[in-house]
């Protein structure tokens, strides 16, 4: 069996930084190649190979794949929900063209596996929003969600027609202290911790009782790597797996923070992101992931809050 050589495109993003670090710990620094359109993230500098890469440049991507003898690609580069709504056609072009280029390169170079993340943004207002099931009504309301659902279908198509081993997760809102949010509707759940420590106050762009599925980044990274390491015959879908850990509202996360910072206060000024949040599920049924590859989260809201505040204190 050939040596695993992993290319992470979008390595400086919210997921990419921590996934790169985790994969380098598991596979060795020189076996995990990081790439992004911008200069290397401070946490990745001098930690392993890095390329400045525009994901839309298929020739440059192919050159890296050949030069580094890549066997797996994690494609994380994308325009997220709130950012995408400001320029829908650009979001569609970047999210879809980059994916199709990577799938074609992966076929051409006979890569072992490809990872491409989906999102709860695939769901819409017609989707049952409590314990949303793996197979349900899917009518996304944002260009980000449309591109993610189209991407899931492409993953399934490339697997069924050509046997490409593509794997995916429908991420909920992700919360991390190591990297900044990237323009998503769930970003409030990262910003609120920073503002609680800096200013003891936060104005939330969602209403107080807006429940959304969320996950601490530690769980998301572990779940991603676990999925990529599962034997092929254990996987029962080539669409994206539902994956979840907890659901909470801005009011509940504020109450969790007040247990550590009693003087913290929050107010609410919903903006255009409220409509996006209202189109998404309140909670997710991830029983298929729990059955197929024994998925189980480790963090609940209070454990996450304690960990976030502890780590952020050293960076602010």
The backbone outline, from C-alpha atoms, is globular
Q: Helix and strand string, N-terminal first?
A: EHEEHEHHEEHEEEHEEHEEHEHHH
Given the structure, what is the number of helices? 11
Category from helices, strands and their pairing: alpha/beta
Q: What distance separates the N and C termini?
A: 45 Å
Stated plainly, the CATH topology of the largest domain is called: Rossmann fold
What would you say the CATH architecture of the largest domain is? Answer: 3-Layer(aba) Sandwich
Q: Record the strand order, biggest sheet.
A: 3-2-1-4-5-7
**Poorly predicted spans:** none
Tally of DSSP β-strands: 14
Helical fraction: 40-55%
Rg (C-alpha, Å): 19 Å
CATH C-level label of the largest domain: Alpha Beta
Strand content: 5-15%
CATH superfamily of the largest domain: NAD(P)-binding Rossmann-like Domain
Query: Could you say how many structural domains there are in total?
Result: 2
Biggest sheet statistics: 6 strands, parallel
Tell me, rounded to a whole number, the average pLDDT. Answer: 94
